[in-house]
Amino acid sequence: xxxxxxxxHSPHSLAPAGASARAxxxxxxxxAGGPAQVLSRIEFSGAGDLPSVxxxxxxxxxxxxxxGAAVAELVAAVFDELPAVxxxxxxxxxxxxxxxxxxxxTLPPQWDAIAxxxxxxxxxxxxxxxxxxxxxxxxxxxxxxxxxxxxNGPDKARVAEAVSGxxxxxxxxxxxxxxxxxxxxxxxxxxxxxxxxxxxxAEPLLATTVLEAGPRRVYAGTRARPLAGVRVLDLTRxxxxxxxxxxxxxxxxxxxxxxxxxxxxxxxxxxxxHDRSCFEQLLGQADVLVHGYRSDALxxxxxxxxxxxxxxPGLIDVSLDxxxxxxxxxxxxxxxxxxxxxxxxxxxxxxRLGRDRPTPLPVQALDHATxxxxxxxxxxxxxxxxxxxxxxxTRASLARMAMLLTGAPMDAQGVMAAETLEDxxxxxxxxxxxxxxxxxxxVTVEGAPMQWVYPAGPLGNAPxxx
Length: 466
Hints:
Layout: H1 3-8, H2 19-31, E1 42-45, H3 56-79, E2 85-88, H4 89-95, E3 100-102, E4 116-119, E5 124-128, H5 132-141, H6 145-149, H7 156-163, H8 168-177, E6 181-184, H9 188-193, H10 195-201, E7 207-213, E8 231-235, H11 240-250, E9 254-257, H12 273-284, E10 288-291, H13 297-300, H14 305-311, E11 316-321, H15 336-342, H16 345-352, H17 365-388, E12 390-397, H18 398-406, E13 429-430, E14 435-438, E15 443-445
Parallel strand pairs: 1-2, 8-9, 8-10, 10-11, 11-12
Antiparallel strand pairs: 2-15, 3-14, 4-5, 5-6, 7-12, 13-14
Helix pairs in contact: 2-3, 3-4, 3-17, 5-8, 11-17, 17-18
């Protein structure tokens, strides 16, 4: 997209250079409860924007900047020194896609063969079918399960034909009722008037509650690795939660991720007595819990907020969901691409750019930005606990992040320079699949560089133990 196109189709008036990223950073940092003086140490560099009618690059820079600011605040609280934080807008944009650059091999496909956008009788709908049970639900509603059981699952053409006879919202409701994931394309105005859009608009970007103090914990971090010794129990799926915990691990945290046994990952069955005991031991020894289940999922398993605090006094309990924590869709399954359809982002891109199909963001920015927001909340919680011993509980949602993005002014800086080898770290990471370079970190806290102990590897490669 040319500079002229970017200006012509901008959803908002243009702001002075750098203003949008700083305004977004201020909003995110304020939502996290961070002290304003920390922002004076944030420096932005890097020109250009990802091609979008929304301020995606500024959101990327602001969200990674907020996470970096939280680390700087923790360093200041413990070591009485507020370090500078440097954010590279280009690198932040690239990290919002993927950070690994394989050498001689390719990354696996990100999407199931039939996932995608389909024309309905009155608009568009997106089917999210990456998980087998979500795929099965969509095919059952479309009366295509027979193709699947015959061993030759339907292709996109067959799905498109089946979808074309449905009204978008009717198909959305039917797939969701079947236990699947789908989102009809709505305009921003329609979302603003929708009961769930109204509910999300009334929610804060981050909702944080300070809880009672637990036993004082010895701070084990160092100036170079501020989160060393912090145990993070990760109960999340793609993508916001892992973004958050990857950032925490990059500053020294010990992250252990577990999932239900239906997933190809380290697993615990919380309906099994032995696995429940294991989970309770892990949680009792954790500093941080990050979870992305639907709002009532842990409650139904007997691990509501009060039970979690009882098992781990002083816990920093951070949770996220797709569509918000109030309103009629508060328990609805969802992902970044679906929220973009629901909230008007994909429709705005299509309309303002004159396209003939939904035009989402160039990256899954809601997931990534929310992930760094969660990371900032975790580290701020650690700072609070270091000062008072208090725990805290924080909630965020992809839909509320969408609202922040769609309301942000554009700070158009032209076409972003393409990635070069200089953007990659020189070290070779020995991943399980083959060697790879990783992009240079998008944010640097002075004296505390991000680095990871473990290379990228397959899921399910570690025991459920600290």
